[in-house]
Every structure is written in C-alpha cells, then in structure tokens.
Amino acid sequence: MPHAPPLGALLRQYRAGSALSCEPVDQGLLNRGWRLCTTRGRFFLKHHFDPETAAPAAIDRQHRATRRLAGLGVPVAPALPGRDGRTVVVVGGHCYALHPWIDGRHRHGGQLTAAQCERLGALLGAVHAGLEQVMPGTGPRTPERAGPRDAPDPAASADPADTFALIDGLLAQVRRHRPADSFDELARHRLLERRALLERHADRRPPRGGAVGWVHGDFHPFNLLYQGDAPAAIVDWDRLGVRPRAEEAVRAAAIFFVGPSGPLDLPKVRAYARAYRRTAGATPAQLEAAVHRVWWERLNDFWMLRWHYERDDRRADPQFPAASALAVWWTREYEAVREAFTG
C-alpha cells in the first residue's frame, strides 16, 4: 500500500490506546482503510484521500449524518470523536477518521432470500426517509456519477452525440492496445453493440431528473455489512449528497441483483422495490421515471472502459462483463424491468 498511516500522531488525538497491529483492508476506489487493533479494542481507520470527497467539511457532514441516522435506528458505524470532540483528524495534510470495527460480510443479491430482498429495500427506504429528517433542506447539489468520475449534472441526462464521440475515442484506444487481449475483444464488441443500440433509441433520451433528496450515493453490496441474515452497518458515505432518490433505489438494485451474464433477478427486484416504495413513500410513477433514466444512464455509461484505457486503472475490470451485458439485456426486457419496479 503506497501510504502508511501515521499511527503515533493519530492515536495521540484519540482515546484509543496504543497500537498492537494495523493491517490494510481491501483498497476501495475512493479511500484507503486499515483494521487497527489497540490496547482498547478494534477499529477501522479510514484515510480520505479522494480530492473530490476529502474536504474536512464534507467528511464532517457525513459524520453528522451517520450519527443522527444511528439515533433513528439505521445500522451505521459513526466515526468516533477525538480528544477535541472532532471526528476528522488532519495529519500531514491528510484526513483520517476512526470508526468502530464491525465484524460482518458482504452479501450479493444472489445470496438473499425474497424476505431479505424486502428487508434490503426497506433499509434503503429508511435511509432516504431518515436523511430527510436529519439533514437540512435539500443541501448542496453534488455530482451524480454512474462511476466515480462521470456526469457533471445530476439532473441532466446523457447526450447521445457526446456518447457517440466517446465511443469513437474508446474504439481508437482499443485498436491501439498491443498486444490485444480478451478484454480488448469484449470492449470492442460492447462498444459497437452499444453504438447500434443508441442509434436505435436516441429519441428516448429522458427529461431532467425528478424529485431530489439526500441519498447515500453509493449503495451497493460492498458498502453493506451483514451479521448473519441481518444488515449490521451501511458504510462508505463519501458520496452523501442531494440527488434523485428513486434513481438511487434503481441503481442499487441494478448492482445487487445483476447476474454474471447481465440479467436482473426480477422477482427479487420486485420484492425489494415494493418494500422500498412503502418505506420511502415513493410512488410507482417516481420509480418508473427512475427506471427510464437509469436505463439511459447505463446505455451511455463507459466509466469502466475509461478507467481501463485512459487511466490504466484495472480495478473495475472484473465488473465490466456483467455491467456491459446488463445494458443490452435491459434494453431488450425494458417493459419487464419497468413492471418489476412499479408493480
């Protein structure tokens, strides 16, 4: 790991005892973390290093939100205060936070029963309803992203003209890559396929987004820990912001319930969506509009390929086969997907 935490300086600012061990956990896309064992217990030490989410004020907002949600019974792991009462510690220009360690495991939608899918939808609904209670107004708008670096306007839908230009640029990069490999072959196939789909459906570009509210911003299996059958903690609130709420519900389902070859498990989606609508107070019409916008987003979304070819960052490569197949399957099964979210 390229950056080791300055444990001495950090622990002096907490009542957490002396370090016994500090082991890196799986590195995320936006931040780094360590499992820290001290003479006073086990903790998760988080280094906020993404420049767009690591401002102390933004981190403090996340911490206030999770602390208040915990008071409503939402399963979270609020940051611990330091000796000065603050939950953000800055050492050497870097922002850190200390959280209680939560034993748990991640569970994909394929590992959930129908009842657990309902519980998942109700959980996200409780997050949205809870944030509406504990956060002021609609707050600052933050960029909506299908991936960590795309789409500057959360209300605007992608312009297919821009996407066609992006496809052409990516195809040129695929052709230049030597030696060509199986990822290049799949990328080329999906880019040509997606261009044909967009040409066929370019007139279905959705209008600007609907009702917005505070959302988690990155609700997916790797940001939810389970203990047994029960959710134990929603983690990684770095993308907390104001965006179309129903779209987060659809986007999360498209991650939890996608199969390896692209299809969504629609019976599980239906159970999840009904519970979400009931708990969040969302209407079928809101979910229908969200389905259309997220479908369109998927048709125009190439952040994984941009990471691979423009940044030489391969961390998202394992997600690409299923994610790229989903856009094609969703287009073919559009009405069935819409009904699963609204029926």
Describe it for me?
By secondary structure, this protein is of the alpha+beta class. 44% of the residues lie in helices and 14% in strands. It has helices at residues 7-11, 56-71, 114-134, 160-176, 182-201, 245-256, 266-280, 284-299, 303-310, 320-332, 334-342, and strands at 19-24, 31-38, 41-48, 89-91, 94-100, 212-215, 224-227, 230-234, 241-244. The strands form 3 sheets. A 5-stranded antiparallel sheet has the order 1-2-3-5-4. The protein has a two-stranded antiparallel sheet with strand order 6-9. A hairpin with a 2-residue loop joins strand 4 (89-91) and strand 5.
Instruction: Give me the Rg, rounded.
Output: 21 Å
The proportion of residues forming helix, as a percent range, comes to 40-55%
Q: Outline the biggest β-sheet.
A: 5 strands, antiparallel
Structural class: alpha+beta
Tell me the number of strands.
9
Q: Tell me the overall shape.
A: globular
Following the backbone from N to C, one meets helices and strands in this order, namely: HEEEHEEHHHEEEEHHHHHH
Determine the mean pLDDT.
91
Amino-to-carboxy terminus distance: 47 Å
Approximate strand percentage: 5-15%
Q: What is the number of helices?
A: 11
**Neighbour order of strands in the largest sheet:** 1-2-3-5-4
Low-confidence stretches: 139-152
Tags for this model:
about 350 residues; about 15% strand; 9 strands; 5-stranded antiparallel β-sheet; two-stranded antiparallel sheet; alpha+beta; about 45% helix
